[in-house]
């Protein structure tokens, strides 16, 4: 099971434009590049997350940085979309081996794009970058899981070509 | 969940129109391509025009053209024009019994997953999927004459 301490898809991306404001495309921000997160990025990451979710969770993000942002990680990814030093979005995921009986595959736990920067392909760039990381790590399948009523993010992943996985999530009261 | 014939025809029509945004598509064209009733299809197209998804043009060379936003229009938006998606499955069973309620619970689960899927897929996403199908068919040496984007 993907790390239960990670808040999955606590936000949205909406690169495809579904249900998200006026029907206009935006050019990608100047000099956009996707790179591994750095400690200096965390205040911006925390601010974007707080803007989108309404909750500021600094401790949570610093802990995630400690576990996913350290150099030398070959199977964990915490990437940010950077435009001239401004963080516009981020994505987190990792390779998990033999979860649910599945051969190693990449899991995307969270993806968020700053609301003012949406509809410019940033979510697509983040997803493509983490897929590239997963490929380098030797896996050929990428999965994610999100709420059934999260139409915005579901539509984003669908627009990127993701389809239903051969798994069904189940739950019970503890 | 089983879609009514009108709903299926509406989905075919919307995807045909969306795949050829610069052309008028006619009921006869779509009917011939998919082997369906022109009369039934004409009624569906009029309904889609009334809903603002298609624009209609009369006269020689007339037909229907996509007017909805393919990036935003979802399969559910089209389906809901023809079906009451809030209704329970017709096979839900007699809920006055434990067995009936248990069966209804499972059918509701199935319905909710189906609705979430329809809500999450835009026409643009479908066009990408159709294109992938066309490329796969070409790679396999299968003529893609029935593919919307191959028209």
Compile the SSE list and pairings.
The complex is a heterodimer of chains A (174) and B (151).
Chain A: E1 32-36, H1 42-53, H2 58-68, E2 76-83, E3 86-96, E4 105-113, H3 122-136, E5 142-144, H4 151-159
Parallel strand pairs in A: 4-5
Antiparallel strand pairs in A: 1-2, 2-3, 3-4
Helix pairs in contact in A: 1-2
Chain B: H1 5-19, H2 27-34, H3 38-50, E1 54-57, E2 63-66, H4 75-82, H5 98-120, H6 123-139
Antiparallel strand pairs in B: 1-2
Helix pairs in contact in B: 1-3, 1-4, 1-6, 2-3, 4-5
Description:
Chain A is an alpha+beta fold and 174 residues long. Chain A has one domain (32-159): Gcn5-related N-acetyltransferase (GNAT) (Aminopeptidase, 3-Layer(aba) Sandwich), CATH 3.40.630.30. Chain A is built from four helices and five strands; from the N terminus they run βααβββαβα. Chain A has helices at residues 42-53, 58-68, 122-136, 151-159; strands at 32-36, 76-83, 86-96, 105-113, 142-144. Chain A has a five-stranded mixed β-sheet with strand order 1-2-3-4-5, sandwiched between helices. In chain A, strand 3 (86-96) and strand 4 form a beta hairpin. In chain A, helix 1 crosses helix 2 (58-68). Chain A is globular. By secondary structure, chain B is mainly alpha-helical. Helices cover 56% and strands 5% of the residues of chain B. In chain B, strands 1-2 form a two-stranded antiparallel ribbon. In chain B, helix 1 (5-19) crosses helix 4 (75-82). The longest helix of chain B is centred in the C-terminal third of the chain and has 23 residues, at 98-120. In chain B, 25% of the residues are buried.
């Amino acid at each position: 099971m993907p790390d239960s301490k990670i808040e999955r898809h606590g936000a949205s991306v909406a690169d495809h434009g579904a249900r998200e404001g006026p029907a206009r495309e935006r050019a990608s921000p100047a000099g956009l590049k996707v790179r591994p997160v750095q400690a200096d990025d965390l205040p911006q990451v925390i601010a974007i997350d707080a803007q989108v979710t309404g909750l500021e969770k600094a401790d949570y993000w610093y802990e995630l940085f400690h576990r996913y942002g350290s150099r030398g990680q070959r199977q964990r990814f915490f990437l940010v979309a950077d435009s001239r030093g401004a963080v516009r979005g981020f994505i987190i995921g990792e390779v998990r081996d033999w979860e649910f009986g599945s051969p190693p595959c990449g899991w995307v736990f969270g993806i968020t794009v700053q609301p003012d920067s949406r509809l410019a392909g940033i979510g697509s760039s983040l997803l493509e970058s983490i897929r590239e990381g997963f490929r380098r790590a030797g896996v050929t399948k990428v999965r994610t899981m999100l709420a059934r009523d999260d139409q915005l993010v579901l539509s984003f992943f669908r627009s990127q070509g993701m389809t239903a996985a051969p798994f069904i999530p189940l739950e019970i009261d503890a | 969940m089983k879609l009514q014939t009108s709903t299926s025809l509406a989905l075919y029509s919307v995807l045909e129109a969306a795949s050829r945004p610069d052309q008028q598509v006619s009921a006869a064209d779509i009917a011939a391509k998919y082997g369906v009733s022109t009369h039934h299809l004409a009624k569906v197209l009029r309904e889609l025009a009334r809903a603002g998804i298609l624009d209609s043009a009369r006269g020689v060379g007339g037909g229907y053209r996509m007017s909805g936003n393919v990036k935003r229009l979802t399969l559910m938006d089209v389906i809901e024009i023809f079906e009451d998606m809030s209704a329970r499955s017709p096979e839900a069973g007699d809920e006055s019994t434990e067995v009936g309620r248990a069966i209804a619970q499972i059918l509701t689960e199935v319905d909710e997953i189906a609705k979430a899927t329809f809500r999450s897929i835009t026409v643009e996403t479908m066009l990408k999927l159709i294109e992938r199908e066309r490329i796969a068919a070409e790679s396999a040496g299968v003529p893609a004459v029935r593919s919307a984007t191959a028209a």
